[in-house]
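Hi Y.,

Following your request, here is the sequence exactly as I used it, all 492 residues.
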Amino acid sequence: MSIPAQSDGAEDRASGTATLSKDAAPGEVLLKVTGLQKHFPIRKGLLQRQVGAVRAVDGLDFEVRSGETLGVVGESGCGKSTMGRLITRLLEPTAGSIEFEGKDITHLGVSGMRPLRRDVQMIFQDPYSSLNPRHTIGTIVGAPFRLQGVEPEGGIKKEVQRLLSVVGLNPEHYNRYPHEFSGGQRQRIGIARALALNPKLVVADEPVSALDVSIQAQVVNLLDDLQQELGLTYVIIAHDLSVVRHVSDRIAVMYLGKIVELADREALYKAPMHPYTKALMSAVPIPDPSRKSAKSERILLKGDVPSPIAPPSGCRFHTRCWKATEICRTTEPPLKELKPGQQVACHHPENFEDQAPQDTVLLTAAKEAAELVADEVLAESAATSAAVAAEVAETAEPSGSAETAETSESAATAESSESAATSETSESAETSESAETAEPAETAESSESAESAETAETSESAETSESSESSESSESSESGTDGSGSQGPTEK
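Below is the corresponding structure, written out as tokens. Let me know if you'd prefer a different format.
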């Protein structure tokens, strides 16, 4: 099966419009949505002043990889269809960003989005209202070629007939009108129109909700076959969880404008973590005759979905949840990954350790909601959470002991290094002290020697002076004796 060749974009480059990047490889991020919001204003009065807003989509974060299928499920009014129209830019977002193949398309105008329309197409929920009743099928399916200026080989009519045969319709129906077809055939016409330009991303808004079971299987198998042959990437919005499980690789669960859980298909159906997801899974009938007499384990939710005009504070599901506590009413849980490939926004998740174990007092609404839940389900939920918590604690103990051993080893190493440093410091201190002590001692010795030398010199000089004085005195005494001896006889 071949798809018509498209123009190489030379006309777009000549006209100055945006051009697309190269194709994303399988597994690479094709679509990235961050903080996406869409609020529809409520206006009243003569001046049409805004008095409120319907928070249809209120902060979505997810990625779609090339070649995969992302299923989106949730109750009516949770914002699934609005999200699909925001992705295809049929609606202008209030806030957030949308990136397609790394290019920001959040606020592109009509001319900027025109080349992107070849790669992003949508299959609408109601096939009859999405087909112009005044146009033939050939005109409807061939419209994308004329709008994009693409001329397929062999002409538009031949290519349209080939597309009709691809989706399982008779090529001879080219000149018929939409009212001449059944619901399943009209949905196939919508699929043929979406595939006309060989898109990279197809957003299917409940493609099988208006069809009977046999036609549903045909359309779902057709989507699977086209994905395998053409490498398409799907975002499928649906209510039927069985259909979503059959076609999806990953599943996002929406509630009141937000994603409460995003996980792989097998992980989500095997062990759902958000209470709302568990309630949805319990509503899926099991075609097993042996379970006919078994007691139903369906979880009935209390009340209706709150109004998106004034959503509840904190966790938006706490008004209907049987596990809600005070932290659920005051703090909004973030969407975080608790298991590999499974993200959940819940303070008290199922099949996992409690994220707020200190908060154990149930709200009044939670007690009323718990009355609608079977005791077996509550007991199983509590036992599973306790088992997971014990497993996490056991896993944490060896790691904690290992960390303690590593800490003790590092502490011992630090102590030894500190002691070594202390000994080195003491040795250096002792050396410096001995050096300092030796210096004054040497100084004292030198001073003492100098003083003794001075004393000796002084004593020597003193002795010399005394000896000279004594010699002088002896000489004088000798001269005096001689004079007296000579004068004596004369006087006589």
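The CA atoms of residues 163 and 192 lie 6 Å apart.

Thanks again,
Q.
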